[in-house]
């Protein structure tokens, strides 16, 4: 019996501590938000919104407050808030009514104020990688000169590979939307592409092209 009481007391103490920490965090964010800190405004939106576990409606006090801070953060060009506002004004969420003009506005704010992209790689499966290259140069008829090729060869440990490009790729990169052997090449001249995104399938992988595309679709990658 004493053990049960001790467990109950311990749980109560933990819950009280967690609640106290949340209150302390909210007060600190509120102080910064009221001072004009847009990042604090967005963090306050998240804190208040998550209390409703995603079921936010403007009639709820916490949700109305959350939406207020989200809008203020967006008006101050906070890129995180702008991303949420563009989505919600486009599809309707967090109690906001769809509004095409506002969605376009906040999409522009997001694109202008988001951090610049960085080179990155991610392991998707054995011998399959997602790759992002910033300001990569692609060459006519010679893919081996490109930064994309250098990174892909390193990922595949020197073996051959195929590329599947996604995203906003220049139309004259001939392999957009389908696998090609090696790196992308141009029909004419060379060009610097601000952001290249796609998948590298190493020759050593047991995945076929068809199985790879199905895997990427199933996991929401494409």
Q: Any descriptors?
A:
five-stranded antiparallel β-sheet, 222 residues, 17% strand, alpha+beta, single chain
What does this 3D model show about the protein?
With 222 residues, the chain is an alpha+beta fold. Helix content is 48%, strand content 17%. The protein has 7 helices and 5 strands. It has a 5-stranded antiparallel beta sheet with strand order 1-2-5-3-4, sandwiched between helices. Strand 1 (120-125) and strand 2 (128-138) form a beta hairpin. Helix 2 runs antiparallel to helix 3. The radius of gyration is 24 Å and the shape is elongated.
Task: Give me a quick take on this structure.
This protein has 222 residues and is of the alpha+beta class. It has helices spanning 2-34, 38-50, 61-75, 79-91, 100-113, 147-155, 209-218, and strands spanning 120-125, 128-138, 161-166, 180-181, 191-202. Helix content is 48%, strand content 17%.
Question: How is the secondary structure organized here?
Answer:
Blueprint: H1 2-34, H2 38-50, H3 61-75, H4 79-91, H5 100-113, E1 120-125, E2 128-138, H6 147-155, E3 161-166, E4 180-181, E5 191-202, H7 209-218
Antiparallel strand pairs: 1-2, 2-5, 3-4, 3-5
Uncertain residue ranges: 4-19
**Rounded average pLDDT:** 81
Q: Determine the fraction of residues in helical runs and give it as a percent range.
A: 40-55%
The helix/strand series, from N terminus to C terminus, equals HHHHHEEHEEEH
- Our estimate of the beta-strand percent is 15-25%
Q: Structural class of the helix and strand makeup? A: alpha+beta
Q: How many strand segments?
A: 5
Shape: elongated
Q: Rg to the nearest angstrom?
A: 24 Å
Number of DSSP helical runs? 7
Taking strands numbered 1, 2, ... along the chain, how are they ordered across the largest sheet?
A: 1-2-5-3-4
């Amino acid at each position: 019996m004493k053990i049960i009481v001790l467990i109950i007391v311990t749980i109560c103490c933990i819950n009280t501590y967690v609640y106290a920490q949340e209150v302390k965090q909210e007060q600190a964010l509120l102080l910064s938000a009221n001072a004009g800190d847009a990042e604090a405004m967005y963090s306050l939106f998240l804190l208040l919104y998550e209390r409703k576990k995603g079921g936010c409606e403007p009639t709820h006090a916490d949700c109305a407050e959350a939406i207020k801070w989200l809008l203020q953060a967006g008006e101050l060009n906070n890129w995180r808030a702008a991303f949420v506002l563009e989505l919600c004004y486009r599809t309707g969420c967090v109690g906001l009514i769809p509004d095409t003009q506002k969605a376009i506005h906040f999409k522009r704010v997001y694109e202008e104020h988001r951090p610049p992209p960085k080179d990155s790689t991610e392991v998707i499966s054995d011998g399959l990688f997602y790759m992002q290259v910033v300001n990569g140069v692609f060459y006519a008829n010679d893919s081996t000169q490109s930064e994309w090729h250098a990174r892909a060869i390193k990922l595949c440990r020197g073996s051959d590979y195929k590329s599947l490009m996604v995203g906003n790729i220049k139309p004259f990169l001939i392999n957009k939307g389908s696998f090609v052997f090696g790196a992308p090449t141009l029909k004419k001249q060379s060009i610097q592409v601000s952001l290249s995104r796609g998948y590298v399938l190493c020759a050593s992988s047991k995945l076929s092209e068809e199985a790879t595309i199905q895997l990427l679709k199933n996991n929401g990658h494409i």
